[in-house]
Amino acid sequence: MVTGRYTSDLSEGDELGPVEYTMSRFVAREYAHANEMHQPCFQGVDGQIAPPTLVHIDKLRLYKLACPGGAGPSARIHYEFDATIHEPIRVGTRIVSRGRVVGRYAKKGREYVVTAIEMRAADDGRLLVEYRDTVILSYRQAAGAAS
């Protein structure tokens, strides 16, 4: 486990979480507003739901819990993600999120970490979102390249 270390110390097999919280109207609306998602379903109309990409915040919550030292010696770069939304996350839903580092590898001088995250309803365990996230931890420039 990486507790007390940096996100750059994450290793394949590390477990992140769980984190439990209730999706609030404020968080759903403000996240949608910040991402210019002005559809009524995100802005507080009856039946308000969280924007699907809000799963990014759960990744940060899991990192903060497991790696309170922060990013480490170099900032991570969000490289790519894939999310499968099994059902909308309604405001007021109690959520449990867990993550697992499923890969860490180097390719062309870059170091990658792949994390799989699941968001589930706390009341009955039904799967709401599956999320696979890849970050780049470091990049070594070729000899003689400008920095």
Task: Give a verbal description of the structure.
With 147 residues, this protein is mainly β. 15% of the residues lie in helices and 38% in strands. It has two helices and five strands. It is globular and about 50 Å long.
Class based on secondary structure composition and strand pairing:
mainly beta
Write the CATH fold name: Thiol Ester Dehydrase, Chain A
**H/E element order:** EHHEEEE
Count of runs of 4 or more consecutive helical residues:
2
State the low-pLDDT regions, or none.
Answer: none
Largest sheet: 5 strands, antiparallel
Q: Supply the CATH architecture.
A: Roll
Average pLDDT rating:
87
CATH class: Alpha Beta
Strand order of the largest sheet: 1-3-4-5-2
Cα distance, first to last residue?
34 Å
Secondary structure tally: strands? 5
User: Could you name the CATH homologous superfamily?
Assistant: Hotdog Thioesterase
Radius of gyration: 17 Å
Give the number of domains. 1
* Basic shape: globular
Strand fraction equals 35-45%
Considering the chains and any ligands shown, give keywords for the structure:
147 residues; mainly beta; Thiol Ester Dehydrase, Chain A; 5-stranded antiparallel beta sheet; 2 helices; 5 strands
